[in-house]
Amino acid sequence: MAFEGLADKLQAVFKKLTQRGRLSEKDVKDALREVRLALLEADVNFLVVKDFLKKVQERAVGQEVLSALTPGQMVIKIVNEELTAVMGGKNARLELQQRPAVIMLVGLQGAGKTTLAGKLGGLLKKQGKKPMLAACDVYRPAAIRQLQLVGEKMELPVFEQGQGDPVQIAKEAQRQAIIGLNDVLIVDTAGRLHIDDELMQELENIKAAVKPDEILLVVDAMTGQDAVNVAKSFDERLGVTGVVLSKLDGDTRGGAAISIRAVTGKPIKFASVGEKLTDIEPFYPDRMASRILGMGDVLSLIEKAQAAVDENKAAEMEKRLRKNQFTLEDFLDSFEQMKNMGSMDEILAMLPGGNKLQGAQIDEKAMGRTKAILLSMTPRERRNPRILDFSRKKRIAAGSGTSVQQVNQLLRQFEQTQQLMKRFGAMSKHGRRGFPRMPF
Questions:
Q1: Nearest 5 degrees, angle CA 50-CA 55-CA 57?
Q2: What region, left, alpha or beta, does residue 375 occupy, with left being phi > 0 and alpha being psi -120 to 50 degrees?
Q3: Pick from 264, 278, 401, 437: CA 20 to 30 A from residue 114's CA?
Q4: What local confidence, expressed as pLDDT, does residue 340 receive?
């Protein structure tokens, strides 16, 4: 999970505060000193930390907090609000005016621009847009091929003209987008290991040629404070409109996400949170602050569930639940849709206090074994598990690399689930409201 080290340290500080009945001004100052160290260790900009703590302290040592019934919780609330403000306050949306609207992706080599082009294109496609990708990184032949592969996976058209003039390629891509009725053009540009004048001049020329609605700077969240310096340099030459944090799922200390808005004034618009091409999220400062402080992010979890759910399957499953017809086929469908939401660690990170359970309570291998057992059954066996005699169970165990005992254990768990569903069905028949929909 992103910010794991920072989150653990901040939550330890606040746990001490909430265990005290009353707080003195010294208690608050001591706690904020520990917060300061945690933020600096997370590579948050020194001036950002100084300004942030000044605002928190002014509010936290006021009489309203010190005399509150739960002063520790009041301090956490203030920290949450100020952390949200530092990261931008609210979600910053894309401003797409032209048709086709042009989004220009810029950044250093290795920041993840090419993959991000596919992720962003896929996200916009889900929102009803018709994006096209343009390969303007002409210095690395692998970059053109990579963009084509990403486009194929996301079923997005990719415009490329090999290793020609990137400015002319961008202009021709814009023309082709008009002809093809694509309403968004995402331009993947070249990067360098370090910022140089030649690169910046090329990017300025592409900007002048296609007049982008958005210039999104892709920065590697794992580079910490360096990402802020990169953002300042790109903004001075190009006037970036927003930032995308890539690799936010890695071992990042969090400094870039917390500092970048405060130092550059540019909003973080998206976060890349995994390796899959669907792992991209709009950046919500309030939700990120809640995650950092261990309060969870239930709204993002709900959105993940909605994106992963096949509504028709969910409706059909609910009908079968009401009629007590829940089968192992439904069980398998549930596993598939849960998988689409991400790993259990990712899901737990979005639950209040869930970070404490990560890696401890959920056995991902056991879930894999369960799926293997289900897939080793025939459709007839999944629909009617009563026909599973010893020889069938032996075959299923051999096919799934498990034991007959583990197959029996799964069947017992399924029977318990069926009993639970029967109770819900009975509640529904007796007119009680609130029959629970399956979460997947």
A1: 90
A2: alpha
A3: 264
A4: 60
The vertex-410 CA angle with 384 and 327, nearest 5°, equals 30
- The SS3 assignment for 268 reads strand
What is the spatial distance between Cα 379 and Cα 307, in angstroms, rounded to a whole number? Answer: 27
Beta strands 242-246; 184-189: pairing state = unpaired
The answer to whether 116 and 246 are in contact (CB under 8 A) is yes
Interval 391-413: pLDDT, tens:
999 999 999 899 999 999 888 88
**Cβ contact 385:414 at 8 Å:** yes
From CA 192, how far away is CA 439, in angstroms rounded? 45
292 CB neighbour count, 10 Å cutoff: 26
Give the E-state strand segments of 23-100 in sequence order. none
Q: Which residue ranges form the domains of the chain, and what is each CATH number? A: 4-86 (1.20.120.140), 101-295 (3.40.50.300), 303-429 (1.10.260.30)
Q: Give the per-residue pLDDT at 439.
A: 35
Question: Alpha-carbon distance 179 to 174, whole Å?
Answer: 9
Q: Give the residue from 211, 228, 278, 217 showing the smallest Cα distance to 249.
A: 278
Give the largest Cα separation in the chain, rounded: 74
From the list 48, 49, 8, the residue with the least C-alpha distance to 32 is 49
For residues 252 and 225, give the distance between their C-alpha atoms in angstroms, rounded to a whole number.
Answer: 11
The H-or-E segment that residue 299 falls in is helix 298-308
Single-letter residue type at 5: G
